[in-house]
Write a structure and sequence with these properties.
It is a single chain. The protein has 478 residues and is an alpha/beta fold. The chain has a domain of 326 residues: Metal-dependent hydrolases (TIM Barrel, Alpha-Beta Barrel). It is built from 19 helices and 17 strands. Strands 1, 2, 3, 4, 5, 15, 16 and 17 form an 8-stranded mixed beta sheet that branches. The chain has a 4-stranded parallel beta sheet with strand order 11-12-13-14, with helices on one face. Strand 7, helix 5 and strand 8 form a beta-alpha-beta unit. The longest helix is centred in the C-terminal third of the chain and has 24 residues. It is globular, with a radius of gyration of 23 Å. The chain binds zinc ion. The site of zinc ion has 4 residues, from loops. Zinc ion binds next to loops.
């Protein structure tokens, strides 16, 4: 009796220790899976994936591999895709450090194993988190970050690196070098076009991918000529259905206001012209991160009541209090302006299948941020992919935009972004076929990332923890 008991205890303790201590080096076998090849759209049935030291060692029949494995994961009838990439998020808010940190597991529970942080006032903290996650000290999605972004003097965004001349540009790029950021982001709130363009040129010279907004006093083509890597937000594409050069001229000589330019982009939009411009951009290797969901949430604010949105159980009161900023900015809009927002959103969404067809790379990103009203972390990427599908993109194209396109864009496709032998095992097990309906990405049965497997129970536990943390933080601030 005693003997049995101690043996049980030994197994219990040893087992516990083993899982904790060697999770990184465990051997796993995920078997009877339907593996989705995101490169081709082929589905390989009844295969097993052998994972050793976080790497996909073999993809073969269960019979051949079953003896080598330590821990088996039965994925019968399920679909396996690479972990999702949200290629545009902001981890922001100087007073939201704990709030943001608590959301990292929520990303994983939504199948998002990699994010690209497009700069914020928390840039330095995000860089720290990036390294801690890479070192296995903190559990969360792999982070690529711009750290802080380049802007002009007195921009509306907090934490920008504000520059006025080329000397300051050099200083700030030196600073970004020292931070070891993963790409350079530039926005146009107060930064003038000529210095913006110079920033692109200089950052490219240093080997960075350079992304950002598009200033009114530059054309998209000006940026493309200098090797601009990606346009953040598909809203800028509407300019391509117009005469960009004359708009730029009007802005520069003062005969055109920004508001009038925006109106023209919408009202004089020529679809054929835009389609032609998309193939020019494809040839120049300029990608686009559409971020439809943010524009949609704002455009339909008067029709959709967000009071009971389920995701709010993960967001602290302090986090959500930031949502008022944009709501306040829109408070005085006329019915005409409201309608214009909706028309604009619809026209932007309609561009996606044309953009896809042109050969331009679409990288999926949500633009979730504390300042982006009702663009919830993690959940909004899933909504974004649904909007892609509603726009007419095919499920495979959408899946590519949220997996391998991100990996290729960040120059990591050799090691991640698809399920292939030799790559890092970073994958999501789904209950349904995402190639039939992209919404299958929300029916998750398990996630394998950072050398660990999280089954449905473990994922639910992460979500449960996040709601507890939210309640705790709210309470501590009462
Ligand atoms: Zn953004």
């Amino acid at each position: 009796m005693f003997h049995q008991k101690s043996k049980f205890l030994f197994i219990l303790l040893f087992g516990f220790f083993y899982i904790n201590a060697t999770a990184q080096n465990q051997t796993f076998l995920i078997h009877h899976a339907k593996i989705v090849d995101v490169k081709t759209g082929n589905i390989t049935k009844k295969r097993a994936i052998l994972i050793e030291n976080q790497t996909i060692k073999s993809i073969d029949s269960y019979k051949k591999l079953k003896k080598q494995s330590f821990k088996k994961i039965d994925a019968k009838g399920k679909y396996i895709i690479p972990g999702l990439w949200d290629m545009h998020i902001h981890i922001e808010g100087q007073d939201l450090v704990e709030d943001n940190k608590a959301l990292f597991p929520v990303f994983l529970a939504h199948g998002i194993t990699t994010v690209r942080d497009a700069a914020s006032d928390l840039g330095l903290q995000v860089l720290k988190w990036r390294d801690e996650i890479n070192e296995g000290k903190l559990l969360g999605p792999t982070i690529y970050t711009a750290g802080r972004k380049l802007e002009g003097l007195n921009s509306i965004w907090k934490g920008d690196l504000e520059i006025e001349n080329e000397e300051q540009l050099t200083q700030m790029l030196d600073y970004l070098d020292s931070l070891k950021v993963d790409f350079v982001k530039i926005t146009e709130n107060t930064l003038k076009g000529d210095l913006f363009l110079k920033s692109v040129i200089e950052a490219k010279k240093r080997g960075y991918k350079v992304t950002g907004h598009v200033p009114y006093d530059l054309t998209i083509n000006d940026l493309a000529e200098e090797g601009f890597s990606a346009i953040e937000h598909a809203s800028y594409l509407l300019r391509l259905g117009n005469d960009e050069i004359s708009s730029k001229k009007g802005i520069l000589d003062g005969t055109l206001t920004k508001a009038q330019a925006e109106k023209d982009f919408l009202q004089n939009f020529d679809q054929e012209k835009a389609i032609k411009a998309y193939s020019d951009l494809a040839n120049k290797n300029v990608a686009v991160c559409p971020t439809l969901i943010g524009g949609k949430q704002l455009a339909y604010l008067d029709e959709n009541d967000h009071k009971n949105d389920d995701f709010q159980k993960y967001l602290t009161k302090r986090f959500m209090s930031n949502y008022q900023w944009r709501i306040g900015r829109m408070a005085n809009e006329t019915p005409e302006q409201k309608q214009q927002r909706k028309d604009r959103y619809q026209l932007i969404a309609k561009q996606l299948p044309y953009v896809q067809k042109s050969g331009m790379t679409i990288i999926a990103g949500s633009d979730c941020a504390a300042l982006n009203t009702f663009v919830y972390p993690a959940a909004s990427l899933i909504e974004e992919l649904d909007l892609f599908q509603k726009s007419g993109m095919k499920p495979l194209e959408i899946l590519q935009s949220a997996t391998l396109n991100g990996a290729k864009f960040m120059g990591k496709f050799e090691t991640v972004g698809s399920i292939d032998i030799g790559k890092i095992a970073d994958l999501v097990i789904l209950e349904e076929n995402p190639l039939e309906d992209i919404n299958a990405v929300s029916k998750i049965s398990g996630v394998f990332t950072k050398g660990k497997y999280f089954n449905k129970t473990a994922l639910n536990q992460m979500l449960e923890e996040a709601t507890k943390k939210k309640a705790e933080l709210d309470k501590s601030r009462e």
